[in-house]
UniProtKB/TrEMBL annotation:
InterPro entries: TMEM272. Keywords: Membrane, Transmembrane, Transmembrane helix. The lineage of its organism: Eukaryota, Metazoa, Chordata, Craniata, Vertebrata. This is Uncharacterized protein. The chain crosses the membrane at residues 20-42, 54-75, 96-116, 136-165.
Amino acid sequence: MEDRMLLRNIRQTPKPSTPVLVVSKLIMLCLPIVQIVLGTIYLKDCPAQPYIPIYVLVSGVFTMCLSLLSCLPCARESEEGEQNPLSSICTAWNSLLTVFLFCWFIAGNVWIYSIYAPSYSPLELGKYCHKTLYLFAFWMTTLVYILVGVLLVGGCCALICMAVCGRSGFGSGFNDDI
């Protein structure tokens, strides 16, 4: 009985207002813009691993494309939940971009962590990588792992709390008779 009530409440989630959506999209576009700028500025400034500035630049471009794709009207489902052919194409592009970004992220991990602690002195040509570029790429990649870890721990804690509250009859006060 509780499950039906929970599902009914999930289906009726409130939709955020347009200003909230616009502000959140603008905030989400800040990081890709910074990635594009840093990748472009320091394109030739990492001889220790020349793919790092390309990784940062391409990540920014494709993340921006993914964000802009989500703004298109074809990316949203209709109120009835049915998909039109244009929506299916948007979903396919969204999926392809996501898979590409995941694979690109793995490649970036290899490039970034393989030269961990490079020399920041331009005098060491073979081991040099610009400090701003490298630390930005390193910490953005590391923060993804930190965020995933926090989400996993938080999700496990939420599941444990739901299991404990479910056994104690937390939702037993609801009457689901219609």
